[in-house]
Specification:
CATH topology of the largest domain: Rossmann fold
Helix content: 40-55%
Number of strands: 5
Structural class: alpha/beta
CATH architecture of the largest domain: 3-Layer(aba) Sandwich
Largest sheet: 5 strands, parallel
Strand content: 5-15%
Length: about 230
Amino acid sequence: MTEETIRIVLADDQDLVREGVRMMLEAEADFRVIGEARSGIAAVQRVEELDPDVVLMDIRMPVMDGIEATTRIASTGARARVLILTTFDLDEYVFLALRAGASGFLLKDATRDQLTRGVRSVARGDALLDPGITRRLIEEYCRVPPASSAAEHARLTLSERELEVLLHVAQAKSNAEIAADLFVSEATVKSYVARLLSKLGLRDRVQIVVYAYEQGLVAPGARDDHLGK
């Protein structure tokens, strides 16, 4: 994907924010900003009209917020990946946006390098997850334990190895890190992740993380070596 042009839509109600982000993105040879939106409804319309690869989505916008816009974009089956831009790393709305179908999030004070790497990662179909921030975020908003039958159903649906991979993904580990931990190749890990997405009807790795917490497969507050126990 890095050698192909990544087509991007910017959605933010602040003109100066859009202008600054556009300047950083367009300094990259493989990026092209093809549209802008000042509201969530406009972002949905731009996606329908322009079919971008990535949408950089603010959360708090007039007319329709970024959460609802993300939900609508994901529900249409559009190939566009939504990358949330937020001011605070524990904004309650970020979790709602991830659950709605966003592929990750970045803080608005991210460096140019973090921004460009993040856009490329999401464009490839990966999730943009910071292990520390994502863990705190999901633990904060997944405190109601699910019915035990939900977790049991997940365990029965997945093979032992699939469940193992799921628990590693839930720690926001990369394919390379998972491969090293499980003594398998990265290609094997990718295959298992694809199988998890298909079996569970999920869109990407972010939703695997959310699923693991919501189904009780990972307990809020649990240490990494107690995941799934």
